[in-house]
Each structure stands twice: as C-alpha cells, then as structure tokens.
C-alpha cells in the first residue's frame, strides 16, 4: 500500500504519525507542526460494579485546573489541556512521542448514571471518575379504559 493510499484511509492522528515517520526516514527529520482541534486522546479504562461505573483516565502531566468533566446524554466527556513540561527549550529532538495541547475524550457509558452524584479524584496522573448507577424506575402500569 502506498503512503497516499494509507493517508486517505487514516484519521488526522494517523496522518501526523505517518508524516513524522516519513521525515524521520528521509534523514532530515524536523518535526512538522500540525494544528488539530484536539491534539491527543488520553487512554481510559471503563469498568462497572453492581452500584457504579468507574472510569480511569491517564492524564500524566495535566494539572487538575486544566481538566473539565461533563456527562451529557449518558456520555462522559473529559477534556482539557496538557502543556509542555517546564524547563529549558529542547530543540534537538531525537525522539518525540509525548503529545501536548488540547485533548478530548468521549466515553459512552454502559448504563444510565446519576451524574449529580459523580465523584472524581486525581492522583499521580490518573483521573478516576466514579459514577453511581441511576436508580431503576419501577415499571409504570397503564390503566385500560373499558368502554361499554
């Protein structure tokens, strides 16, 4: 498969990786600058217990002030920004794999949850969100009118 064919089938992140590989193989690798609305997607684990849905997101290097969490239409939305680490500017890269910039992750939840009772904790780069399951509504009976 030619690179042009691969690029047609790939998403923006795949295209960026392919371009970086191309420049690396050419030998004149200089990281191209790409401006995507969302620069990267954090890795997440989603699990479920009898009473809640637990989502853990890997957000290493993101400060808690730069994290926004919402639940809309039974979809968990985690977004924010990861800035480059402080220190001297690095200009002579030999390898660059860590993504910086804005991120957004939409996670469809497996069951209805009570978003108002959700709790989030952030420790050592891992964001844990606990979403209690919504109480099941009892089945509603329907009265039947009988016309005589």
Short structural description:
This protein is α+β, with helices and mostly antiparallel strands and 148 residues long. 15% of the residues lie in helices and 31% in strands.
Helix/strand-derived category reads alpha+beta
User: Which descriptor suits the 3D outline?
Assistant: elongated
Uncertain stretches of 5 or more adjacent residues: 28-35
CATH topology of the largest domain: Immunoglobulin-like
The share of residues in extended strands comes to 25-35%
Give the overall pLDDT as a whole number: 81
Read across the widest sheet, the strand sequence of neighbours is 1-2-7-6
Instruction: Give the C-level CATH assignment of the largest domain.
Output: Mainly Beta
Distance between the termini: 75 Å
The rounded Rg comes to 22 Å
Oligomer: single chain
What is the string of SSEs from the N terminus onward?
A: HHEEEEEEE
> Number of helical segments?
2
Domains (count): 2
Provide an overview of this structure:
This protein has 148 residues and is an alpha+beta fold. The protein folds into two domains: 1-36, no CATH class; 38-86 and 96-135, Immunoglobulin-like (Sandwich). 15% of the residues lie in helices and 31% in strands. The protein contains two helices and seven strands. The chain has helices at residues 3-9, 12-26; strands spanning 44-48, 52-58, 67-72, 75-82, 101-108, 119-123, 126-132. Strands 1-2-7-6 form a four-stranded antiparallel beta sheet, with no helix packed on it. A three-stranded antiparallel beta sheet has the order 3-4-5, with no helix packed on it. Strand 3 (67-72) and strand 4 (75-82) form a beta hairpin. It is elongated, with a radius of gyration of 22 Å. 10% of the residues are buried. Mean pLDDT is 81; it is low at 28-35.
């Amino acid at each position: 498969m030619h690179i042009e064919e691969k690029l047609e089938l790939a998403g923006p992140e795949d295209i960026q990786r392919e371009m970086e590989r191309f420049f690396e193989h050419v030998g004149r690798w200089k990281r191209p600058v790409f401006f995507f609305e969302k620069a990267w997607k954090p890795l997440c684990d989603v699990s479920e217990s009898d009473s809640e849905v637990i989502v853990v997101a890997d957000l290493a290097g993101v400060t808690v002030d730069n994290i926004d969490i919402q639940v809309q239409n039974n979809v968990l939305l985690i977004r924010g920004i990861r800035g480059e680490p402080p220190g001297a500017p690095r200009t002579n890269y030999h390898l660059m794999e860590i993504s910086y910039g804005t991120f957004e992750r939409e996670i469809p939840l497996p069951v209805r949850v009570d978003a108002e009772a959700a709790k989030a904790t952030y420790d050592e780069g891992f964001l844990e969100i606990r979403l209690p399951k919504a109480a099941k509504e009892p089945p509603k009976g329907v009265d039947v009118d009988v016309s005589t």
